[in-house]
């Protein structure tokens, strides 16, 4: 919740100076979500996990598939709800933040069977932190100067990982 509440939503809606790094972070989010989907399909075959029912790819509550009973405490949910009501204007943004909060509520025991898979929401929250306003249109995630093809999860599972989420590395991408 602290990471979400530290986002400057006005800058996220008005700033586009980090379009290049935001697009790369979005590609990393898509890759991580795809890797998690692949591993969940192996660990929990249909009907428990049916990717066809994830009609909001890639912005859905992945945690509910890892541990269906996992939920943030009611206080954290209330704080997030109040915060979003005052700061984030997009329903998509709210859905993403709720999914990230739910992800953060997963216990280490819930994640134990998945090895060292990375946090799928970390790159996406960095998009917001770095003023990475985006919208979805015609099968693309658009950052004004950069676009990311949405595609299916299968299109992203073998993508090249982003090796560093360090701010200096991301800033260098924007200058390039």
What does this structure look like?
It is a single chain. By secondary structure, this protein is mostly helical. It is 50% helix and 5% strand. The chain contains nine helices and three strands; from the N terminus they run ααααααααβββα. The protein has a three-stranded antiparallel β-sheet, covered by helices on one side. A hairpin with a 4-residue loop joins strand 2 and strand 3 (147-149). Helix 3 runs antiparallel to helix 8 and helix 5 (74-87) packs antiparallel against helix 6 (91-104). The termini are far apart.
Detail the topology: elements first, then pairings.
Layout: H1 2-5, H2 9-14, H3 19-43, H4 63-66, H5 74-87, H6 91-104, H7 108-111, H8 122-129, E1 135-137, E2 140-142, E3 147-149, H9 167-175
Antiparallel strand pairs: 1-2, 2-3
Helix pairs in contact: 3-8, 3-9, 5-6
